[in-house]
Amino acid sequence: MLHRVRSAVAHLVSSGGPPGSGSSVLPTPASPNPIAHPVAPRSPPAGAERGTRASGGAVENRGSFSRPTFLQLSPRGLRRAEDHAGRVVQSPPDTGRRLPWRTGYAEVINAGKSRHNEDQACCEVVYVESRQARMGGPGKSISDQDEHMAREQRNQYAVGGCCALVAVYLLGKMYVANAGDSRAIIVRNGDIIPMSREFTPETERQRLQLLGFLKPELLGNEFTHLEFPRRVQPKELGQRMLYRDQSMTGWAYKKIELQDLRFPLVCGEGKKARVMATIGVTRGLGDHNLKVSSSTLPVKPFLSCFPEVQVYDLTQYEHCPDDVLILGTDGLWDVSSDKDVADTVDKVLSSFEPNDPSRYTALAQTLVLGARGISREQGWRLPNNKMGSGDDISVFVIPLGGAGSYT
Fold first, then answer.
1. pLDDT value at position 6?
2. Cα–Cα distance between 152 and 146 in angstroms, integer?
3. C-alpha dihedral over 107, 40, 279, 51, to 10 degrees?
4. Listed GO cellular component terms (predicted)?
5. Cα(169)–Cα(138) distance, rounded to whole angstroms?
6. How confident is the model at residue 134, as a pLDDT?
7. CA 291 to chain centre
8. Domains of the chain listed by start with CATH number
9. Which end of the chain is least crowded, N or C, by CB within 10 Å?
10. Of 67, 91, 324, 348, which Cα lies nearest the Cα of 192?
11. Tell me: the pLDDT tens digits for 322-335?
12. Residue 236 phi/psi, 5° resolution?
């Protein structure tokens, strides 16, 4: 099965859609081992879409735009999905086959920051076919795919990268692997159980600084691994200023030296935090060709493809139909706290009968609508008049018990 997991991740990041995107075949809810994993690839720049020649001689456009097959979008529906002004929320249709376990899904395109929806999602059922599967699970699958992308980028000059959030159910346990700034939480009986964390320059500051300290050649003569409260000015040479390095969680004073005038390896705060003034996510796939602006310094050595994997044992608890796993891209979490999401779970699911098959899709739609907000003259706004999310938003809602159980 792990080979199939690697294959699913590979298809998502290399072709922009799930395996068999030209087929109407969907997994059946009766199958025992589904996978649900949203993957958020960044769109390639204009002119970067290149075709590769398949073994049969046909040209395959691996950079062509697509949406998840399970949305079953018509050509007209696809055009609506790409409307940055209307930002219509898309979900699988009520008719036809449903996602495994009655999983709910909803997505919406960004407000115009890129041409296409940068998120991509896949939900599959796979089976264990061999006892000789390689060890490592979803974490190994993601790192294997990063190596595959490196080969493609060398051979075809494919550019770009993506975050990855993968949930795999196997033998009574849910494995959640995250590399990037998407996140997952479990809401169980009203309690919130984090199943991942964001990987940003702020959360991984010490790892980045340690690498810069051990391998100063990666910084060239342009960056310093030290962090200061603000950019050091030449007139401050010889003065004392607060700083911190890879071993410090607090601050101390040091005398400013000439090399301290270099740009800090980690700069900015919150969503504006950057590594080498270039990228705001520190784990993910791809970006092997990414360089610092106006420089030849590569950024990839500071970016890790290895996900953090958390395991949740479903056999340890008696789950009810209102217990769910929420997978969301950063477009959701930028404007919604864990408590906001948990409150929405309680509000929406309590308004449906436990055996209603549409309740989880309705929840996913409500979460996406709540993060998107309403279009006003000042842009997309939340009910409290704060800015709504202008990013792409994708949400999976996976029930952990009741009518949507896995057995």
1. 52
2. 10
3. -120
4. mitochondrion
5. 11
6. 55
7. 22
8. 2-50+61-195+306-404 (3.60.40), 205-280 (no CATH)
9. C
10. 324
11. 999 999 999 999 99
12. -95, 5
- Please name the residue that has the structure tokens 């309680």: 346
Q: Are 104 and 397 in contact (CB under 8 A)?
A: yes
* Residue-by-residue DSSP string for 75-144: HHHHHHHT-TTT---B---SSSPPPGGG-EEEEE--SSSSSS---EEEEEE-----TTPPTTHHHHHHHH
Classify the C-alpha dihedral 108-179-26-404 as positive or negative: negative
Residue 135, token pair as written in the block = 């060890």
Please tell me whether residue 65 adopts helix, strand or coil conformation.
coil
User: From CA 111, how far away is CA 388, in angstroms rounded?
Assistant: 10
Q: What is the pLDDT of residue 116?
A: 80
Residue whose tokens read 């930002």: 87
Q: Which amino acid is at 74?
A: S
Give residue for tokens 């071993």.
247
- Phi, psi angle pair for 302, to nearest 5°: -95, -5
Residue 315 CA to residue 323 CA, distance in Å, equals 14
Structural tokens at position 6: 């690697």
